[in-house]
Design goal:
Chain lengths: 315, 441, 419
């Protein structure tokens, strides 16, 4: 019970962090069809910007300024880069973002150095909120939950209650139709790309000090974000939300459940010994592959349900 | 008379001549591949340059890999993020085969060892293809990404087949050669690699002419129509995937013969990315595109990385420029000149090219200098290297180099902008002329 | 048409290449070149980059203050291997092309295994162009056991030795430990070695948890911390490096769990920043050197030498232990009175050496494993030299001397016939 409750909280925090990163990508991917490899780079940039800004004027301004900066960069990328590449097809767009990711990584290395930077949790939030069965629950985690919940609310309201939100929602599912109705689709694209990048930047601001701010952070965070988006399904923010929490929970609970396929086979009366074929694979306990479960889930879901959990159309 | 005869021969080529005219590039390429290492031969010690041979071998085997990747991407429109798993698994199968031959538990001539890798790639291609080809487009890409991550992680976790981090090492000197060649020297192996690269390339070229190859194109362009004609696009994808697995496996086998070891990074995402980049840079639309791309990418990776700390940045910039301005890749650029060449006016482009070359070079120099300066102040400086151009030591903390670099970059790009207008006008005029003379097909 | 055009271009390129080859630089043999290959670009660049800078400093010192060897200077030639064995092997080819006597590599046992094999084969196939592989940090135990080679010299303690040092540092009151390692050759071997060392030296200690995690895939370690906490462990023993270690310790400190962390790599670049002030007195690391060793043992000369590095560079001199490597190479060359790799290799075998801190070390003849002293440092406030400007630094807690660290080897060394 003790482990269960703490794990639930852990899963929730991690899931929400994933959601912050993935929600922007969901918007971009669903609407523009761009597999944006530079998305995690925006996450990294957000963290580094926040580090530099918080050194000079503090964490709270950084919370606003860093995402805005990221958003501005995103808008520039869309207007001067992606838009030109768009006519060359999706693979060209993908490679464009891939090239960007390489450049951003190198620029970050050249600007802030190769080793991690000391981006710390602000002092005002550096205390333990409550203690649950002897484990501290840092206030910063609660703050992360709060920010991501606020963000989810804001996106949801923005998409359902504002005019541009309605257009974006329409463009999510029927991009051609929206264009046909006379809306300025390129501007919608720019808005979406910029806000997607800004969201990733925000995730970087609050994830950078929760994790470690270093040049490899984009590289390691990249694939998992794709998994979340695709599992959640294109065109569905709710799907993305559910998938994020699911990934958070799966990885958290996989750690605590010490079972292996061999245990499952025991139920059917089969005992795995070292002479059984594939015994090496069959005796792998769940915690050992916990972090790989998202990828297994990705493959399984796409094979049987290519639209993802809540997707409105096939990927 | 002779001029007349040549002209006639050109007009009505028959038999072997026609064949020679069409395919002369193949033997020429093989010949070039075999002659190139001799340029770097050290006559003093009577040794081949191991570095050049290894690099050329790397180019050859990565070409096979990139070509097999293009069987999926270019031909069938299947973008894979996990193609390296077929390459790597082919390599692992080869390594185990070589070890088995060495141990005497099976027999296979050294020359045919790449087939073992091919079969390995084929089998794994069928297994993974069965899962992945259920979908197409983005879903396919994502499935291959997932599979790639899973295989890469397994390669580290399971010691039995993959040998863990240390990988599987092997010895290519197994004394089963059909021609009595020991394959102990890099040169002998290089010849074998070139032979197999040629065989694999020819087979892949022929494959594009088969009904399967044609149907793959059809399914890429419009899978619904292909379906109406009565083909099952899924099966077409599956066969194409599996076959491309065979050739990827051959590439992996050549990797093992060259390096005599196979480790987890042969199945990792970075290898897959290399194939994707090479294919795109060279041009996915043309058969030879991936080969050209591979040459560029390998030279960048192994050559430029020796010279500059910031080579990844250059790679990134190159991709972005290619994607933005030459979506057809290098072969695409060459192909765009075809109509002008057909009307025999290629010479007219010489002056415009020279005119954009100068500002282009200036701009590139400015950019490179700027990047190197920045990289030297932050990273390179303390690696104990001086920033040298030729024999002149440049001080990255002085203002002058920065100003010069910035001026070159800005000036070059403004000048280029001006010149490119002139180029554009010339180009458009020539293309219009080609169009008028019916040289655009 | 496009093809023919391309062919013309290719011909031109070939001619250019030929011209380039013709004008290739003549190699002046006035320095002793050491090829150094490690990742210098990409996500793992920090490892190679930091090593390179520190080695450069050491080499400059050896050249200028200690007079190089045989009147020649050492020269380090870096090659970026991008963490790929194939690129490391290309670097090896470059090195042998230029008749360099040494190739050096520090990170990644996969690359080390590839290099050992390749150097072995190259040297037996080309007796006139041999090379020595200097291993400065690939620590898989098997490299000097089953995979041992005459041409491979390892100058870092292997993982079984590190595990033993780690276990020796466990205080008497710690009786419950938790193992958490990365799921690949090195992590698995740490897991095995720590258990073996516990069984040998501390049978009273109970292993309450034993975990393997996929390499570099875990982004949130909070669940692991919860599990470790629930197991009642007093100490966490881990061989993790990079993000897997940084995030693990950070998560543990954030959760305020009462744990001692025993690591192998927390002292490397980026570790101190990642741990932060919250880790005061909690994190220990098994290390060959830290900057506070010299002042602690009162070795003024070594202290002045390391302090001079700190003035020159903005980061820690954690790899000062590499100095031992270059001193060994220097002595080996002097003893062999030649830069011929075969002679140097024979000279290095069994060579004893007093390192710059004043401890006795030896390059063991049986397996070419350096047996030297090793330290366990604790990350705490109030040390003389802090780490990465955090205000905290590594103070030495335990020193294990070379004679106490000698472990048996299964190596069956094959030596070349001629000397």
């Amino acid at each position: 019970m003790e482990v269960f409750l703490v794990s639930l909280l852990n899963g929730l925090v991690y899931g929400m962090l994933l959601f912050m990163l993935a929600s922007g990508l969901t918007l971009i991917l669903s609407m523009m069809g761009v597999l944006n490899f530079a998305h995690a780079s925006a996450y990294m940039l957000g963290a580094y910007f926040a580090f530099t800004i918080s050194q000079h004027i503090g964490f709270w301004p950084a919370l606003v300024l860093a995402p805005v900066l990221c958003g501005a960069i995103g808008a520039a990328i869309e207007m001067y880069g992606l838009r030109r590449v768009h006519k060359n097809g999706h693979i060209a767009e993908l490679l464009f973002t891939f090239g960007l990711a390489l450049i951003i990584e190198k620029v970050v290395q050249m600007t802030w150095g190769l080793i991690p930077v000391p981006y710390r949790i602000p002092e005002g939030l550096d205390f333990s909120l409550f203690t649950i069965y002897g484990t501290h629950f840092p206030a910063y985690r609660a703050f992360m939950l709060l920010i991501s919940a606020l963000m989810f609310g804001a996106i949801w309201l923005g998409l359902t209650r504002t005019r541009i939100g309605l257009i974006i929602q329409a463009a999510l599912t029927h991009p051609e139709m929206v264009g046909a109705l006379g809306h300025n689709v390129p501007r919608v694209f720019t808005t979406v790309f910029a806000s997607g990048t800004a969201l990733a930047g925000l995730a970087g601001v609050i994830g950078g000090n929760y994790q470690v701010t270093e040049p490899a952070m984009a590289f390691t965070m990249g694939p998992i974000v794709f998994v979340v988006v695709v599992v959640g399904g294109l065109g569905s923010l709710t799907g993305c939300f559910i998938a994020s929490l699911l990934m958070g929970m799966i990885q958290t609970f996989a750690v605590v459940l010490d079972y292996s396929p061999a245990d499952l086979l025991k139920w059917f009366g089969l005992t795995v010994t070292s002479s059984t074929p594939f015994h090496e694979v069959l005796t792998v306990p769940l915690p050992r592959i916990g972090a790989l479960l998202p990828y297994i889930l990705l493959v399984v879901i796409l094979v049987f349900r290519p639209r993802g959990l809540m997707g409105t159309r096939e990927t | 008379m002779s001029a007349d005869a040549t002209q006639r021969a050109a007009l009505a080529p028959t038999g072997i001549v026609a064949f020679g005219r069409r395919y002369w590039l193949w033997p020429a390429a093989i010949l070039a591949a075999l002659l190139l290492p001799w340029l770097f031969f050290d006559w003093g010690t009577h040794r081949h340059s191991g570095f050049v041979l290894t690099m050329l071998s790397e180019i050859a085997l990565m070409s096979v890999f990139a070509l097999s990747f293009n069987m999926q991407m270019g031909q069938a429109g299947l973008l894979s993020f996990g193609h390296a798993i077929l390459f790597g698994l082919g390599g692992y199968v080869t390594a185990h085969t070589l070890n088995a031959i060495k141990a005497g538990s099976m027999w296979l001539p050294t020359e045919l060892v790449p087939l073992a890798g091919g079969v390995g790639g084929l089998v794994f291609g069928a297994a993974f293809g069965y899962v992945a080809t259920k979908q197409r487009a983005t879903a396919f890409a994502m499935i291959t990404m997932g599979l790639g991550e899973l295989v890469a992680a397994s390669a580290l976790m399971f010691m039995g087949f993959f040998g863990g981090e240390g990988g599987i090492s092997t010895d290519r000197v197994i004394d089963t050669s059909l021609f009595g060649v020991p394959y102990s020297s890099p040169w002998q192996v290089y010849c074998l690699v070139v032979a197999w690269t040629a065989i694999a390339a020819i087979l892949m070229r022929l494959q594009t002419q088969t009904p399967l190859g044609r149907m793959a194109n059809a399914c890429r362009d419009n899978f619904e129509r292909a379906q109406f004609v009565g083909y099952d696009p899924r099966m077409v994808r599956f066969y194409q995937f599996t076959l491309s697995g065979f050739f990827a496996g051959v590439g992996g086998a050549l990797y093992v013969l060259v390096y005599e070891i196979v480790t987890f990074d042969t199945v990792a995402a970075a290898k897959s990315a290399t194939a994707l980049l090479a294919t795109y840079i060279g041009g996915a639309g043309s058969f030879f595109g991936p080969v050209i791309g591979t040459i560029v990418v390998v030279l960048l990776q192994s050559g430029v990385s020796l010279l500059s700390n910031a080579w990844l940045l250059y790679v990134g910039v190159l991709f972005i420029i290619m994607v933005m301005f030459a979506p057809g890749g290098l072969m695409g650029i060459v192909a765009q000149h075809a109509p002008i060449a057909r009307i025999g006016r290629l010479g007219d482009l010489l002056v415009p090219y020279i005119r954009i070359l100068a500002p282009g070079v200036l701009m590139v120099l400015g950019f490179v200098l700027l990047v190197e300066l920045a990289s030297f102040t932050t990273i390179g400086a303390a690696q104990g290297k001086d920033f040298k151009i030729g024999h002149v030591v440049v001080d990255p903390h002085a203002a002058l180099p920065w100003v010069a670099a910035g001026a070159a970059l800005v000036g070059g790009s403004l000048w280029l902008r001006l010149e490119s207008r002139f180029f554009r006008a010339r180009w458009d005029a020539l293309i219009a002329e080609a169009k008028a003379r019916g040289a655009i097909l | 048409m496009a093809l023919r055009l391309f062919a013309r271009l290719a011909t031109a390129a070939l001619l250019a290449a030929a011209a380039f080859a013709g004008s290739g630089p003549a190699n002046a043999e006035d320095t002793i070149k050491i090829a150094y290959t490690d990742p210098l670009s990409g996500p793992f660049a920090q490892v190679g980059d930091a090593n390179l800078k520190q080695m450069q400093y050491i080499i400059d010192y050896i050249n200028t203050q200690k007079g190089g060897a045989l009147g020649k200077k050492f020269e380090l030639v870096p090659f970026d291997n991008k963490s790929q064995p194939s690129d490391a092997l290309i670097a090896l080819k470059s090195a042998t092309d230029q008749n360099m006597p040494f190739i050096m590599q520090c990170s990644g046992s996969n690359i080390a295994a590839a290099l050992i094999e390749a150097v072995d084969k190259h040297n037996s196939r080309n007796p006139d162009n041999r090379i020595i592989y200097v291993n400065c940090g690939a620590v898989a135990t098997e490299l000097t056991n089953e995979k041992c080679s005459f041409w491979h010299f390892r100058f870092d303690a292997h993982s079984a030795m590190k595990a033993e040092v780690m276990v020796r540092a466990l205080p008497k009151d710690v009786t419950k430990v938790y193992l958490l390692n990365q799921d690949y050759l090195f992590g698995q071997s740490v897991q095995r070695d720590v258990k073996a060392a516990l069984a040998k030296l501390r049978p009273d200690v109970q292993v309450v948890g034993d975990e393997l995690i996929p390499l570099g895939k875990v982004k949130d370690f909070a669940p692991y911390i919860t599990k470790i906490k629930a197991s009642g462990a007093q100490a966490l023993l881990t061989g993790n490096w990079g993000p897997d270690m940084n995030l693990l310790i950070k998560a543990g400190i954030d959760a305020g769990v009462d744990l001692r962390y025993y690591t192998m790599y927390a002292h490397l670049a980026g570790g101190a920043v990642a741990i932060g002030p919250g880790g005061d007195g909690k994190v220990r690391s098994v290390m060959s050197f830290n900057e506070n060793v010299a002042p602690e043992i009162g070795n003024k000369e070594a202290e002045a030498w390391t302090a001079a590095f700190r003035e020159k560079y903005p980061f820690d001199f954690y790899a000062a232990g590499f100095r031992t490597i270059f001193e060994y190479l220097q002595e080996g060359i002097k003893k062999a009175n030649s830069t011929d790799p075969t002679k140097i290799a024979f000279a290095l075998e069994g060579l004893p050496h007093k390192d710059f801190l004043g401890y006795d070390t030896v390059m063991r003849k049986d397996d070419h494993q350096l047996i030297s002293e090793y330290f366990v440092g604790v990350f705490k406030k109030g040390v003389k030299y802090d780490s990465e400007k955090t205000g905290l630094g590594w103070g030495t807690e335990v020193t294990v001397l070379a004679k106490d660290l000698e472990q048996p080897t299964t190596c069956k060394m094959k030596r070349p016939a001629e000397r």
